[in-house]
Write a structure and sequence with these properties.
It is a single chain. The protein is α+β, with helices and mostly antiparallel strands. It has 13 helices and 19 strands. The strands form three sheets. The chain has a ten-stranded mixed β-sheet, sandwiched between helices. Strands 5, 14, 15, 16, 17 and 18 form a six-stranded antiparallel β-sheet that branches. It has a three-stranded antiparallel β-sheet with strand order 9-10-13, covered by helices on one side. The longest helix is centred in the C-terminal third of the chain and has 18 residues.
Length: 470
């Protein structure tokens, strides 16, 4: 009979597609870890990957993951570190095949198994689901998906930890998934290692909280931290977070010794409330976690203990993330220099809008931001800056050294958006003076993929798990 481990160490290696490339290598070489969790997927990412796969059926996954595996595979094989990653996107099998080819090239054949989790991609099944009465109504508006069905480009159900656990139990050293929840990538190793029952709601909730704490990488270890941010040490060498978990559901957040950043109650708290709705009902496919029961304690330098988490049974629904074509957009920018930079930018905006109106162009939305004056906080910034300027603080708006005019348009008509892109550049010479930069050149129209959240009965989604030996 296999003995259960006393503790499990799960290291966060990526918090999104595009995260720091050094993080996974540093996590598996900086000290002992049992698992490396790598989270790549956001809502918009699925539609991007679906478009890639439409152009080339061999693609549709996060290609960065393959380069990362090439660098760390010899290490994870030698040290027996398991990897869980949702880098498979809309093509988990293709991603797993690329990892296998990399392993063979590194002469690691016969030394590891790869688990593949599929079943989340609902795009081929949408018409059948709609025909059988599953309306997939928008959670925000209540509209049925049939209203935009012809424009849908991706549809993925959020799977939970279950299929990842199945892959680990099947002997997988690396588990590649599609749209598995961010938290499930951490919860699954805990369920597998400690043998938690599927109805141990408090334990599952604790594992969910652990996953949520580290799913965004260094955002809980000093990155993007508001509290005392100027004194956070050595962010250039920031250490990514690690979960030290016990079988009873308590765990500690830490990082490798000698790394930068900081693990603190304040920083962990900031991450816990990230993307938070009702804190008493953090709903996942695995359970409902009550974040109001969480207790945090600074037990040592760069070590925060998490305890007291309570959970409740999961719902009978899965969330479905749907992307659909919405139209076109373009964003153009011009930088105006002192004196009267803000007034010049305002004048340029008025001129541009007048020219667009004279051409009879119709836009669903035209948005103007004056970066450096009010782009982040809008009218609040203008009022605060004026008050501070009057008291001798930061400069009032009429004394700003430079302001970037940023104008964006949105329309179902690509031709209208294309014409906008040709109207902003002439302002350099036929508008207000002192343009010092035309950032990025003439803008180009881009397709808009809008987000459609919905719910679907769990019984309508059947995850598939395969474990193959390399």
């Amino acid at each position: 009979m296999k003995l259960r481990p006393a503790t499990v160490r799960i290291a966060a290696g990526q918090g999104f597609w595009g995260d720091w490339l050094e993080a996974p290598y540093r996590q598996v070489t900086g000290g002992p870890v049992d698992y490396l969790m790598m989270d790549y997927l956001a809502e918009v990412t699925m539609s991007i990957l679906q478009k890639q796969k439409a152009r080339d059926p061999s693609l549709g996954y996060a290609k960065d993951f393959i380069a990362q595996m090439e660098r760390i595979l010899p290490i994870v094989v030698e040290r027996r570190v398991n990897v869980t990653a949702n880098a498979g996107g809309v093509n988990p099998r293709g991603c797993a095949q690329a990892v296998a080819e990399t392993a063979r090239r590194l002469r690691l054949g016969g030394q590891l198994r790869i688990g593949v989790v599929t079943g989340d991609d609902l795009l081929p099944r949408l018409d059948g689901l709609l025909a059988h009465g599953h309306e997939l109504r928008n959670l925000d508006t209540g509209r049925p998906l049939s209203d935009v069905r012809a424009r849908v480009v991706s549809a993925n159900a959020y799977l939970g930890a279950g299929p990842v656990v199945e892959a680990l139990r099947g002997g997988a050293d690396i588990v590649v998934t599609g749209r598995v929840t961010d938290t499930g990538l951490t919860l699954a190793p805990l369920i597998h290692a400690f043998g938690w029952r599927p109805d141990a709601w408090d334990l599952l909730a604790a594992g969910t909280v652990a996953g949520h704490t580290i799913e965004c990488g260094a955002q809980c270890s000093g990155g993007n931290c508001l509290v005392d941010w100027e004194r956070i040490p050595d962010l250039a060498n920031v250490g990514y977070p690690i979960v030290d978990a016990d079988p009873d559901g308590t765990f500690e957040i830490t990082k490798h010794p000698g790394t930068g950043g900081r693990i603190s109650v304040a920083g962990v708290t900031e991450q816990l409330v990230y993307e938070m709705g009702n804190p008493a009902e953090y709903i996942t496919p695995d359970c409902i976690a009550d974040f109001t029961t969480i207790r945090l304690e600074q037990v040592a330098r760069d070590r925060v203990r998490v305890s007291g988490v309570r959970g409740r049974p999961a719902t009978d629904k899965l969330k479905v993330s749907i992307g659909y074509f919405y139209g076109y957009k373009a964003v153009g920018t011009l930088v105006y220099a002192w004196p009267e930079a803000y007034k010049k930018a305002q004048a340029a905006d008025r001129i541009l809008r007048q020219r667009l109106a004279d051409l009879g162009l119709k836009f669903e939305s035209v948005l103007t931001e004056f970066v450096g004056a009010d782009a982040t906080h809008g009218p609040l910034a203008r009022g605060a800056r004026g008050a501070r300027g009057a008291q001798g603080g930061s400069a009032p708006l009429d004394q700003l050294p430079e302001v970037q005019l940023r104008v964006g348009v949105r329309s179902p008509d690509k031709a209208a958006v294309e014409r906008f892109t040709r109207e902003i550049a002439p302002l350099i010479l036929n508008g207000p003076p002192s343009v010092t930069g035309f950032a990025g050149g003439r803008p180009k129209p881009e397709e808009i993929v809008a987000y459609w959240p919905a719910l679907l009965d769990k019984g309508m989604v059947e995850p598939c798990v395969e474990v193959v030996e390399v």
